[in-house]
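Example 3.2
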Amino acid sequence: MKWYRIARGLKFFLFAALAVAVFSFAVMSLWNWLMPAIFGANPITFWQAVGLLLLSRILFGRFGGGPGRRIDWRRRMMERWNQMTPEEREKFSKGMTGRCGGWEAQFKEFKEFREPRAPAA
């Protein structure tokens, strides 16, 4: 049983090292192909590409990310929005105007979707 865990850990480590090497090589290749031609930037080495991947991980979080955190943020914002009074909603909307580029229009659609409409006369 102990040998199996060691072998499993070794496989994980080798796979992780291979994945980092492949992604770093891809970043290095794309950078050296595009950046000098577009912006006149200097080519980078493999280890600089590894550092760039690490920096992006620190700044932006997980690679791939997925929709999990965005959906959770949206759910929490919808709960807060539903708990606001109409005056608070209006004040919040006015405060956010021009800050989040199109955010107010999205919330107007959300507001229209959530609030019951009066029957057509």
